[in-house]
Amino acid sequence: MFDTTPHGTKMQRSHGAAHVVMGPRGLIDLSQAGSAKAMLPRMTAGLPEIVFLNTSGGLASGDRLRFAVDLRDGTRALATTQTAERAYRAPRDAARAQVALTVGAGGWLDWLPQETILYDNARLERDTQVDLAGDAGCMLLEVLVLGRLAMGETISHLHLRDRRVVRRDGRVIHHDALALDDAALPRLGDPALLDGARVMASMAIIAPHAADLLPRARAVLDEPGVTAAASALPGRLCLRILSRDNWPLRRQVNRLLGALRPDPLPRIWQV
Asked: What mean pLDDT do residues 113-138 have?
């Protein structure tokens, strides 16, 4: 798809959608179009893995990307991305990403994408919708990088809208939203905001046993260079993690995943 700038230059826009349906015995249906692809590597241990890929290499003005997973009753799986997603400079319309995750009764999904790297002047609107049936559960992870420290990147202009909504049997049980824009950027050094961090992660476990995992999570929140906290409500465990660099945060996330889930890390991003 092409879009025309105010100067009359035609810019190619990326549109992609990938949808995976799985049952207890494996893949039921797979559809993919445009820049979105889905791969199912052969596994010898751990949960079956679904690996999504955006072949356009990143998101810019007017791009549209959709990943969807539908797990039927009694199905357990892990979904991740092959590499970090990148939100590039977007002088016009925001790039829009949608994630739709459905888990049938008795099922479980780990949604563990790799980080999203935001570049200066990025405009990204992302909406993650999770529908759980009955006693189904999920783990959700999102990592945001506000410019790469090692590359000397800084963010002076940004439009970010990032929302995660989880429903059980149609009822909202978890709603997590983040908005960052130009007005907020000068205050990111405030201790009430990011306290100077440029990498942040949100992790949530939505399951009947989630609150019981709180002591286990807090026991490993001691990675040097990382500030983190965990809290629990009935049926939910929520964690926030901040760091000035990506590697300490990634080590902290890996330790949390090892403590909170019985399966190996996603094979595609083990470090």
From this structure: 96
